[in-house]
Amino acid sequence: MNQSELYMMMTVTGRERMPDFIKLYKDKGLEIHTLSLGHGTAEERYLRYLALDGTEKMVCLTVVTGRKWLEVKRAMSVRLHIEAPGVGIAYIVPLSSIGGKRELMFLTEGQGFEKGEVTALKGTEQELLVVISNQGYSGQVMDAAIEAGARGGTVIHARGTGQQKAEQFLGISLASEKDVILIVALTEKKTEMMQQIIRKAGPGTPAGAIVFSLPVTDTAGMTLRPQSEDLEEEPAPAPEEPKE
Questions:
Q1: Residue predicted with more confidence, 82 or 86
Q2: 231 in a domain, yes or no?
């Protein structure tokens, strides 16, 4: 893990425990989060270990540097005893890019992050665009993405925090109710798609969208290129010789 790189920190815990995590994050200088409800789907014996048993869960998304993650991870162990069964889980996924300089400053404020070159992920042909917009504007976001080549997306509802910070960095007042739009895109089309979303649905528009991308190492059941560009179909098996 590179301490100077950016990551998406995902926290899953019970609804009643999430305020404890949010307070810890705030104490560590992290105030910008997106929260949504969730539930576990694994077998019951695993759910207990993953803190995803039958009780209602909340999922928290937060952008962190590698250095901030190590600091928060230690605090979760000491203050929240996260290693104990049933407390919750937290993990990080590398970010490959964030659309817009102001948006980058907004999401990393207080973490001492300095923007370097865009991460090049060798061998990664697809990326997941995560768009956080004001609720009710997912159609505007998808229209912009489709203009740049998107085939479709998935929308989930969430609640945002850190609205005063949003006004400070982005110059707009954001509604607390959010739509999170997930779009899988070809890496070669990612930048154009992110730019189009920022132009058509970003800060300065009623949608107020923020967009960042995550690497996708593989997909199944998904055709992102025209059929002629896809891998050739596996040849059909040769017919069996007739039995005598």
A1: 82
A2: no
